[in-house]
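Appendix B. One record, verbatim.
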Amino acid sequence: MPRTILFIFGTRPEAIKLCPLILRLQQAPERFRVRVCVTAQHRDMLDQVLAAFAIRPDYDLDAMQPGQTLYQSTSRILGALEPVFKDAQPEVAIVQGDTTTTLCGALAAFYAGVPVAHVEAGLRTGDLRQPFPEEMNRVLAARLTALHFAATERAADNLAMEGSTSNVWVTGNTGIDAVLYVRDRLERGEMVAPAAPYLDAGKRMILVTAHRRESFGEGFERICRALAAIANRDDVQLVYPVHPNPRVQEPVDRYLRGHRNITLLEPLDYVRFVDLMRRAYLILTDSGGIQEEGPSLGKPILVLREKTERPEAVEAGTVRLVGTDVGRIAAETSALLDRPEAYARMARIHNPYGDGHACERIDAALREFLRL
């Protein structure tokens, strides 16, 4: 008899990293009865990923509200999950990463007496305020987790130092499975990204994402000033899909809108974003997921953060922390643009986060745990 597996997620990054696993488990209906619950913590961006992977949720909590606080989103999501667990009766609940949905999903499963499986377990900066509130979310989720799926040995070591030594599997990162799945389908013509007429073929394209909560205020303004300085070069075009949060939109509009070498876009669906990543010369980001995905596409990554919970790629040389200092961001970007040897060192394809087979390993671990 198949075992019921309940996936709980609500943001675009969670969907990107769980959809390949959902597709994998759905291929074995004799083993797994897959149920998908989305909280819609990020409504539009979530729906874009679900469409790309052709996944239809069984439960949609539609919890997103304009301007909601962490208090409000947490209480709304947690309360809405109670009837989902009563209806689905899962034998394992799967959460991913470090969002508010992750914490609420793990806590709801704990209340229901259901084992929690945590995909991308063990990431740590050691500072509960960086990133905020993600570091706290993943630390608390780990205490509620029965099956830890760590992307790297270092993440597994972090769990061991906290006392989690059993049911820890090093699987690689499912985000790599996702980005390679889409890249390969784009290259084979099985997916078609919309045209990008705004791209200037005569300039090197720098892809930008920046929206971290801990940078809001002066840190984010410094990032915007650095982007404006880089865009004063005549040989580059910055393409920046801008997060809808007003605390991102306001400084972006003030510093960057109207610049001749900066193209500001609405948030992109996942297929279009992967297409831009593979076209980019380099990537400036404060995103955790892009730190993992970019090296698989051979793209140098400059991270607009002071700390990262993903040090493996920094040590491998494909990712570099540049913080939010205007001068450093501009200087490190210029070095990659002006020094071919520096660019070549970072652009080599070496990804410590996975080989595109993480979902297979998680499938095997679930079968072992459930004695299938």
